[in-house]
Specification:
Order of helices and strands: EHEHEHEHEHHEHHEEEHEHEHE
Number of helices: 11
Radius of gyration: 18 Å
Number of domains: 2
Strand order of the largest sheet: 4-3-1-2-11-12
CATH architecture of the largest domain: 3-Layer(aba) Sandwich
Strand content: 15-25%
Structural class: alpha/beta
Largest sheet: 6 strands, parallel
CATH topology of the largest domain: Rossmann fold
Shape: globular
Helix content: 40-55%
């Protein structure tokens, strides 16, 4: 019996940060990476319409690829669609991505934490519930970036980014209050870790940037280890699926660089 793959789903290239960690933690597992480039960016969608879109997409993806587990490597999608996906496909385990507010609250020394996310994630009640449940003793600033996800897409595809534009997006994360300063910034979008070196360069002072990718991958591993599985085919390669069916050359090159073949 051949091995069922882990399906990694994102609106674009952001989920590659999670795929990268998942490959390290699950080196014997096959992966199918799904880039919903036809729906990018998710922040512009109405919640109900986005939920319907993703549930509909998963019907076809599950039928075609028969995954062992689906990993939703997108904060915005996870905070909207996880209950609907689990209800529609109860036999398939799902792992979502949520802002790493709890570990940030546990690690901060100054008591000033910022959550850098897309506007969609910032406005979700789910995000505010995390702050209420896990960060009631610290000050959490929610920063909704309109442009960072697109800047990350450009950087990954074309190899350059406007550093001044990056600085403008991250500046609101840095707070000084009563001789204290922000010491942790939560990267609450899987696109953002690809720009973290530029963020460090443009930041007004050093902070700890929390990338949730490893924690997400470890949660997926904990579930996959409980499932029956076959051996990976010797010649099996990880696959990428573009929902547009017609990605541009830069996207194709990027996925090829990550060792993904078009499916």
């Amino acid at each position: 019996m051949s091995q069922q793959p882990v399906l990694v789903f994102d609106s674009g290239i952001g989920g590659l940060s999670v795929l990268r960690e998942a490959r390290v933690i699950m080196p014997g597992r096959r992966f199918v990476y799904v880039a919903d480039d036809a729906g990018f960016p998710y922040g512009a969608w109405e919640e109900g319409a986005l939920c319907d879109r993703i549930v509909s997409l998963f019907g076809g993806l599950i039928e075609k690829h028969n995954p062992a587990l689906a990993l939703i490597a997108c904060n915005t999608a996870s905070t909207i669609v996880m209950p609907a996906l689990r209800a529609a496909f109860p036999a398939l385990p799902f792992v979502g991505t949520v802002p790493a507010i709890k570990p940030a609250a546990e690690r901060t020394r100054s008591g000033l934490v910022s959550v850098l996310a897309t506007p969609g994630t910032v406005k979700r009640q789910y995000t505010r519930d995390l702050i209420r449940d896990y960060a009631d003793r610290v000050h959490v600033r929610l920063v909704g970036s309109e442009n960072l996800a697109a800047l990350a897409e450009t950087y990954m595809r074309k190899g350059f980014v406007d550093e001044a534009a990056v600085k403008a997006e991250i500046d609101p994360c840095f707070v000084s209050q009563d001789e204290r300063q922000t010491d942790i910034v939560v990267l609450a979008c899987t696109h953002f870790p690809f720009l973290v070196n530029r963020m460090r360069k443009m930041a007004p002072w050093p902070v700890d940037w929390i990338d949730p990718a490893e924690a997400i991958a470890r949660r997926a591993l904990a579930i996959v280890e409980t499932l029956p599985g076959g051996d990976a085919l010797p010649d099996a390669r990880d696959m990428v699926v573009f929902t547009s069916g017609n990605p541009d050359d830069s996207a194709r090159r990027l996925m090829h660089g990550f060792g993904l073949t078009a499916g």
